[in-house]
Amino acid sequence: MNVSRIAILGVAVVAGAGAFVLMLGQNKTIAPIQIVEPVKEESVRVLVASQNIQRGERLTLEGTSWIAWPKKAVRPTFITDENPEARESLESAVARSLIVAGEPIVNEKVVHAESSGLMAAIISPGMRAVTLRVSPETASGGFILPGDRVDILFTGGGRDSRDGGLARTMFEDVRVLAVNTVFSENTEAAHIDSVNVTLELAPLDSETFISARSSGSLSLVLRSIFKPEGELLATERRSSNVSVIRYGRS
C-alpha cells in the first residue's frame, strides 16, 4: 500500500469520526418532544332559533333547536337545557323583534300569548295602534296582510255634502300591524277574510283617524312593495280635491 492511499484512508477516518462527534453533540441539545393533549372545553346546550323569526311572528317547536354552547360564554338570559320545559312554553310566544337563525332565544325578545303586552311589543316606539272594521270592498279585496303598507282614504258626507262624497287620501304609507288576530308578516295565506285591521299611526294621526272614522267612511288601499323611481309617479295623477296627511302634517 502506497503512501497516498494511506493518507486518503486517514482523512476519511478522521472525517467520519468528526461527523460522529458532531452528531452526538447535536443529539444532546435537542429537547424531547412533548405531546400536549387539548383541553376539552365544557359546553351547555342552549336554545337557539333554527330559522329567521320575524317581529310579530309566533314561535314554534320546529323553529327552535338545542345546540352546544361554550359554558363560559353562556349568559344568564339564555335558555339552557337545565329548564327543558321553557322550550314548550315558547310555542305560544310572539317575537318582539327579529331573531336570526342561530341566535340564542332570550325572554327579552319574546312576548308570551297570555301577556297583556302582545300588541304593544309589535308597535314601533312612539306610535299608536288603531283598528278599523273593513269589508273586502274597503280593504283591497282582502289581500291586505300584516306587514303591508296602505293608504287610508276618507269619504265623508254624501250627496248633500260640500265635496259630493269624493274620496280623499288622509294618510299615506301606513303599516298594517295585524289582520283580525294574525300578527305574522310571513303568513302562508294569500289573503285573509278580514273584519278588523289594526294600523300603526302617530299619536296626532290617531286622533284624526278616530274623528274621521266616526264622521265618514274609511277605506284602505294597498301600496306596492316597490318604491317609484320618481316622486311624480306617485303624485302626477292626484286630483286637486285630494288632501294628503303625512305623519300629522297636511
UniProtKB/TrEMBL annotation:
Asked if the Swiss-Prot or TrEMBL record annotates the protein with the keyword Transmembrane helix, the reply is: yes
Keywords of the record: Membrane, Transmembrane, Transmembrane helix
Name the residues that span the membrane. Answer: 6-25
Q: Which InterPro entries match?
A: Pilus_assmbl_Flp-typ_CpaB (IPR017592), RcpC_dom (IPR031571), SAF (IPR013974)
- According to the entry, every stretch annotated as the SAF domain falls at 44-111
Stated name of the protein: Flp pilus assembly protein CpaB
